[in-house]
Write a structure and sequence with these properties.
Layout: H1 6-14, H2 17-22, H3 30-40, H4 49-66, H5 78-104, H6 108-133, H7 139-152, H8 166-188, H9 199-207, H10 210-216, H11 223-232, H12 235-256, H13 264-287
């Protein structure tokens, strides 16, 4: 099967009224899922390329959903309590579907590999979170670690990739994970609930003066002060420049890869949303 329909298949597990009412499923790992399907589709395991892509995406969604669970102590409103409970339950539910899908297909070894990757992700997260709590993280370190965390599950399939294509797989996975991360960070910049511990936060904390750092250390950051700092330090332009650079590196990788005829159209389809984002943002800046 050549068509890409993994996000539609995943809706069977994510589109529940209770989940939609009280919480929000994180962004689907579309670029990584599609990239995995393309590369596995070029191996002896191609009959399972859609299954692997779906199962891995569900694990990723499960972990991202658990990451939304707040650790703030104190009383909460009923809506907040329900949302917290649903984040726990939704994450657990999505994890169970991954086991079920792979077990039903007899892919026990892959269950072990993905489970090991989950453990690795959690260990890396704990190290990163401890450094963030102590305000010891630079913006570059935060971005680098976030990209690595996004890659980890999908790297479980590296041994399966054809030997001659492994360098391209690793490079494209890193670049598309970077694109996904930057796109998410651009969205987080406008969401008051996600100000803390975003790339924008660390960039401004790193470059800000003492007064601005004091503001960023507050439990609840003043939205107006935040907007002023975002404009002052041109953070959206910084992120967009990084996105352009990553898109250009992807284009060069595909251009330089000899003999890569089958799959080029699929790679272009994965890249297209980021090309559109960059072009649209460039036009918007020029009009301003």
């Amino acid at each position: 099967m050549n068509s890409y329909r993994v996000p539609q298949l995943a809706k069977k597990y994510t589109d529940y009224d209770m989940i939609r009412q009280y919480t929000e499923i994180p962004s689907f790992p579309d670029s990584r899922a599609r990239l995995l399907q393309v590369f596995v589709g070029r191996t002896d395991e191609k009959v399972h390329h859609e299954l692997y892509s779906l199962a891995t995406s569900l694990v990723q969604l499960a972990m991202d959903t658990h990451d939304r669970i707040d650790t703030i102590s104190g009383d909460r409103r009923e809506q907040e309590m329900r949302s917290r409970q649903l984040n726990v339950l939704a994450g657990d539910y999505l994890s169970s579907r991954f086991y079920q899908l792979l077990a039903h297909a007899g892919k026990i070894e892959m269950i072990g590999k993905l489970s090991g990757a989950v453990a690795e992700v959690n260990a890396r997260k704990m190290t990163l979170y401890e450094r963030m709590k102590k305000l010891l993280v630079s913006a570059d370190e935060y971005l680098r670690e976030t990209v690595q965390l996004r890659m980890q599950l999908f790297l479980s399939f590296s041994d399966m990739i054809r030997e001659e294509e492994k360098p391209l797989w690793n490079s494209l996975l890193a670049e598309f994970s970077t694109c996904e991360t930057i796109a998410d960070e651009l969205n987080r910049m406008r969401d008051e609930l996600q100000y803390t511990n975003s790339y924008v936060f660390w960039h401004m904390y790193e470059h800000g003066n003492d007064s601005e750092r004091d503001e960023l250390r507050q439990t609840q950051i003043n939205a107006r002060a935040w907007d002023v700092m975002v404009l002052k330090y041109s953070v959206s332009e910084v992120l967009l420049d990084m996105l352009r650079e990553s898109v250009q590196r992807i284009q060069l990788l595909l251009q330089d890869e000899q003999g890569l005829r089958q799959g080029v159209r699929e790679f272009d389809a994965i890249l297209d949303p980021y090309l559109t984002y960059v072009k649209t943002s460039h036009l918007a800046v020029r009009e301003d």
